Amino acid sequence: MALSPTHEQRPNHILEAGLHRAGHLPGGPERRLEHLIRRLGTAFLFAAFGIGGVFLATVMVPASRWLHSRREDPTVAAQRLIHRSLAWYVRLATALRLFRLTETGTERLRPGAGLIVANHPTLLDVVFLIARAPQADCIVKHEAWRNPFLRPIVASAGYIPNDDGEALLRACVDRLRAGRSVILFPEGSRSPEQGLRRFQRGAARVALASGCAITPVVIGCEPPALKKGQPWWRIPNRRLEFSLAVGQPFHARDIVDESLPAAVAARKLTAHLRGYFEAEVGHGHA
Questions:
Q1: How does 69-84 read in b/e, with b if 16+ C-beta sit within 10 Å?
Q2: Distance between CA atoms of 81 and 16, rounded to whole angstroms?
Q3: Displacement of CA 80 from its chain's centroid (Å)
Q4: Residue 147 needs a FRET pair 20 to 30 A away by CA distance; which of 163, 203, 260, 277 works?
Q5: What band does 35 get if pLDDT is binned at 50, 70 and 90?
C-alpha cells in the first residue's frame, strides 16, 4: 500500500498554496495590509466626497452665486467651481495611490467642446469628465434633485433633470446652441461586466438637432471595478488603472446624410457611435 507523501515529497505548488493560505509566503501579509490600506483609503475618499458636497452646497455655491451674480452666468460659475473641486478630488485620490489616471486628448474638453459622448464603465466616469471639462452641463437623476444636500449643487449648476425625455432633449439642444458643452452617456447606465449596453438614440438626436461637434471619450478601468450593483468596498487587490482617451471631434453631417428622415439619421448615427466605442474598447483603448 502506497504511503501518503511526506511534507518534503508534496509538489511545490501544493506547498505554496498552503503557505499562501496561512500567510507565510514572502509578501503575503504585506499584500493583505496593502489591500486593507486601499480599502480604508477608498472609504476616506468617499467620505471626503460626501463632506465636500455638503461644504459646496452650504458655503461655496452660495458664495460663488453672490460673487459672480453680475459678471457671468451663475450656472457657469457654479460649474467651474464644481470642476475645480473634482479636479482636486482626482488629485487627492492619485496622491493617495488609490488609482492612477492615464489621459490623452483631455485638452479637447475645453469650453465649447459641444456634445461630450462617453462610455460608462464605472461610478467615477462623470467625476473624471467634469474634472477635465471647465464647463459642462450634465444629466442628473431625479434622486439628486430630491436629496437636500445635492439639490443646491445641481440646481445652482443648472444641470438637467432626466424626468422628461423630450424636455431633456430640448434642454440639451438649447445649451449646445448657446455654445455650452453637454455630457451624455449613450448607454444610459453603467456598462455590463463585459462590453457595452445597447446605445440609446438620445445623443444622436441631440447632435442632429443642434448641429454641434461631437467629442467622443473612451473611459477604461483595469481591473474592472465600481460597476453597477458592485459595492464601493469590493475593490480589487491592486491599484485601479483608469484611462481617459478623448478622440477627435466630428459632426453628425460627417457621418449621415442630412436629407435623411430624422429617425433614420438618428439610427445611423447611433450605430456609428456604437461601432466607434466597440472598436476602441475592443482594442484596449478603454
A1: eeeeebbbbbbbbbbe
A2: 53
A3: 18
A4: 203
A5: low
Residue 85 CA to residue 78 CA, distance in Å, equals 11
Could you list the beta-strand ranges (E) of the chain.
99-104, 115-118, 139-140, 160-161, 182-184, 213-222, 240-246, 250-251
**Is residue 111 predicted with pLDDT exceeding 70?**
yes
Q: How confident is the model at residue 91 (pLDDT cuts 50, 70, 90)?
A: very high
Rg (CA), the chain: 23
* Residue 58: DSSP 8-state: I
In this predicted structure, which of 119-128, 159-168, 244-253 has the lowest mean pLDDT?
A: 159-168
pLDDT at 18: 41
Domains and CATH numbers, the chain: 27-282 (3.40.1130)
91's CB contacts (< 8 A; 6+ apart) are none
Instruction: Give residues with Cβ within 8 angstroms of 10, minimum separation 6.
Output: none
DSSP 56: I
The x, y and z cell numbers of residue 248, run together, are: 477627435
Give the Cα separation of 58 and 1 in Å (integer). 79
The percentage of residues in the chain with a pLDDT greater than 90, rounded to a whole number, is: 52
pTM (2 d.p.): 0.82
Judge contact between 176 and 206, C-beta under 8 A: yes
Cβ contact 98:40 at 8 Å:
no
CB 106 within 8 A of CB 246: yes
Number of CB atoms found within 10 A of residue 218's CB: 23
